[in-house]
Give the backbone structure.
Amino acid sequence: MAVAVVYVFTILLSIILTWFTLCVRKRQVGEPPLENGWIPFLGVALEFRQNPLEFLRSKQRKYGDSFTCKIAGNFFTFIMDPFSYSAVFRQGKNLDFQTFAIETSRKVFGHADFNDPIYNRNYKEIHALFRQTLQGPALHNLTSSMMENLQTVMLRNKTSEWTTEGLQSFSFRIMFEAGFRTLFGREEKPSEMENIEPKKFQMTTAMDNFNVFDRAFPEIAAGFPIYLLKKAYTAREALTERLQHKYLKKNHGLSALIERRMNLFDQMPYLDELGKARTHTAMLWASQANTLPATFWSLYYMLRSPEALKVAQTEVERVIQESNQKLDKMKKTVVLSKEQLDSMSALGSIIDEALRLSSASIMIRVATENFVLNMDSGKNVSIRKGDRIAMFPQMIHMDPEIYENPTEFKFNRFLDENGQKKTFFYKNQRKLKNFLLPFGSGVSECPGRFFAVNEIKQFLALVVFYYDMELKDPATPVDIDCSRAGLGILPPKHDVLFRYKLKDCISE
């Protein structure tokens, strides 16, 4: 028995020594400090995932403004100096975002590789549709459509009785359906004489499927096969099934973005119908996954701050009154243009502050060649081909030198002395170009960011106008769930109860 134990121990020791000899990376001249971790393949992944912000802070104290960590089989060089972000963004020749983004998206949604020449359209052409249909003049039509859809969902039940509901549930069900209808249109209601199609799209089912799939998103994006996550796979496929073109073409009010994507995909003979639908599933997730928790946090922080709520109510009432919309016994829906929404600087500051407190995205680029990155400090950092360059904006958002008392919600933090949007913050007495990055930056900056902020601002304006609201327990803070760090806006660990009712001048 003792001989067997010694034999097994010897084999294990040999394996460990072999791994350290052949698999552990060695730091080369000019490269930043390196941490391989002690777990094969995973490296420091578990430590990083537990609390990314504190992990990176500790490594910055130990190594300075650049260091490399092995995480789940890849090497990430973290750039901690916000003044050096621009140096990374300028490295378009040596750093690639497109390949990484498509690989991750294909892993999660199972769609085609649009870099493959067989599809005769490249990623840049498809991606260009976002800017063409979600920004500039196109945003006016989306704003109008979202305004109508929000009120359609919000005012289905006109009662003056107090209703108690989870705040996350409330904001999710309204924003999900309104956002879906704005982008993907709405189905025509069947007449009483028509048979309802057995597979008729049900919004509640779609929301349930979205939730199931979204909860598994971190594991899938990290590389865990979705086929082993049966519920998530089934939910994703159900969403994909109902986003096929044969169903979408029957919808009314399709957005220009979806119409043009459909036309483009229909011109690709090698892309089958499910392949087309998978791209729309990706679009659905992209439009909802971060907007929904951002809406929750914006409303939550506003309700916890009586001053913020009062300022928001005053601003919304002013804008509506200036547009000559009567407040008493309204029978028509509220109309707020993009310009009117833009003028609501207090609501904008509330949203920005909520985004600052809840955003934990990672901006990633992949090195296509060996190259030297010139940091703002003048230091040169050697980067290996295939490594990831990573920037974690939450380090900026929670920096006490940039934001005083950074863990506190201050509704007017992003307002200047004139009550207008504040556009400058400082670190080391230097003005920061990048001080709020919930939507990424450079080539990875979310093209739908203006639409997303507009959606949230519309939602807040309407709930402030239509409802009396109060949190059931405003003194108890809600913890943030950090398990999705790196993917965008962090959700709450649990829902929080609040009560609401239509204002007397609104209810019937």
